[in-house]
Amino acid sequence: MTADQKLTTAAIIISIFNEDKYLKRLLKNIIGFNFFNEIICIDDGSTDTSSKILKSFKNKIQIITFKKNKGKSYAMVAGVKKAQSDIIVFCDADLVKLHKNHFLGLVEPIKYNIADQVLAIREKDVFLFKHLTGERAYRRRDLLPHLEKMEATKFGIETYLNHVFADVRTLWVMTKGLQQAGKKQEKDSIIRYAQAGFEILVEKLREKGWSKIKIIKLLNKKINKINN
Fold it and tell me: What pLDDT is attached to residue 56?
């Protein structure tokens, strides 16, 4: 890596949909770490008090607001487009027990060209679904060619990223103590995994030149086979 390619700035992107129970504490922690050059929060059509909480931090964060829910993938892409920093960190909005070292572990391997993709393993993650972690880091320039397809996935952006970055240098970091709160993680992960897998399958068939009708016929055939 040459001097002019040195990565010096980092942005954190947080997609938010009805996360008022944990959002205030999350933002206080992230701001208090004084680590990120940009804190970009996307209110993805929240109907609770998340919007009000975000506005209370308006001088310290950047806010993107969608009146209607567009899906996590769309929201995260909007954050990448807005960001100007070299390194992008994605972060879920319902995390607890945050520590600055959790983010250092994500950013520094990218910053010092040790890895191209850094994925966090939360303390209580179910091993089978660890690939769906919401905490991950990339070079912004590496994400830019994929934004259009990322945006279209609607669900399972994590699975899509795993797919397109499957052959790059990937580093897993254990974020000791970090936990996701308020959701049944296993059930949530299974649903997201199924949604993402379906979308990637459809995309692969489209790339092979399959028509929409042919794809639907194949999927119906598979479903009928399972039912029988």
Answer: 96
Asked if pLDDT for residue 33 goes beyond 70, the answer is yes
Q: Report the Cα 27 to chain-centroid distance in Å.
A: 17
Q: Strand, coil or helix: what is 122? A: strand
- Sign of the alpha-carbon torsion through 22, 79, 187, 107: negative
Are 123 and 175 in contact by the 8 Å Cβ rule? The answer is: yes
Characterize 28-56 residue by residue with b for buried, 16 or more Cβ atoms within 10 angstroms of its Cβ, and e for exposed.
ebbeebeebebbbbbbbbbeeebbebbee
Q: How many CA atoms lie within 13 A of 92 on its CB side?
A: 23
Q: In angstroms, rounded to a whole number, what is the distance separating the alpha carbons of residues 206 and 215? A: 8
62-96 confidence digits (pLDDT tens): 999 999 999 889 999 999 999 999 999 999 888 87
Number of domains in the chain: 1
- What SS3 state is found at 124? coil
pLDDT above 70 coverage of the chain, percent: 69
Domain range for 9 is 3-227
The CATH number given to whatever domain includes residue 161 is: 3.90.550.10
Does position 201 have pLDDT exceeding 80, yes or no?
no
Instruction: Name residue 64's beta-bridge partners.
Output: 42
Q: Is the pLDDT of residue 227 over 70?
A: no
Non-local (6+) Cβ contacts of 119 within 8 A are 130, 131, 133, 135, 136, 170, 171, 172, 173
The whole-angstrom separation of Cα 76 and Cα 25 is 21
Mean per-residue pLDDT of the chain: 81
Nearest-angstrom CA–CA distance, 116 and 168: 6
